[in-house]
Specification:
Length: 187
């Protein structure tokens, strides 16, 4: 984990890289993902403006006295990441160091934290102060997983468009609160 931590970047660098990839794509994937980078940046900006840490969650965090670090495997273009990563960064700001590891540049880390065999992001890795893995979370809160299961169970009546729309409405209203709570429970 120490090598992955050393290769990780700050949230500010992560956001800057996302903007750079949008404005000056360096490869075909970045060109193909242009609309997702645009949406990701808009959603990150919205979350940064609207997210306010919940007082009860702050008290719970203090009571847990967690002295470790948070490593997030992510990419700016990811819809789930754009809703949760900025909230997590703001919540842990000043308490625990949060760094981001870009999934697409090195798949070796995400391959250790697959979700049902997939490279789904964001993946939050909770590390102790010595960078040992304590727990992991992701790629979306429980309610988001329930929406995905609803889509997979009946894609004809609950289409992919309905799923994505409902998921983004949930993220916009919830503003990271559920993701923070689920991670607090793992500390």
């Amino acid at each position: 984990m120490e090598n992955y931590w050393k290769k990780s970047i700050s949230f500010e660098e992560y956001f800057k890289i996302g903007k750079e990839r949008l404005e000056n794509p360096a490869n075909q994937q970045e060109i193909d993902y242009k609309q997702y980078y645009e949406l990701g940046i808009q959603r990150i900006n919205r979350t940064l403006k609207k997210y306010i840490p919940n007082e009860e969650q702050l008290k719970e965090s203090e009571a847990k006295n967690f002295d470790g670090k948070i490593l997030i495997i992510s990419e700016v273009w990811c819809g789930d990441a754009s809703a949760t990563v900025p909230a997590l960064v703001k919540f842990f700001e000043g308490k625990n160091e949060v760094r981001i590891f870009l999934r697409d540049g090195d798949k070796s880390l995400i391959n250790q934290f697959l979700t049902n065999g997939t490279e789904s992001i964001p993946k939050v890795i909770i590390l102790d102060k010595d960078l040992n893995v304590k727990n992991s979370w992701g790629p979306r809160p429980k309610y988001g997983k329930e929406l995905l299961m609803k889509y997979k169970a009946d894609p004809e009546n609950y289409t992919k468009d309905h799923f994505y729309n409902d998921l983004q409405l949930y993220y916009a209203k919830n503003r990271g609160k559920d993701a923070v709570q689920e991670i607090l429970e793992l500390l």
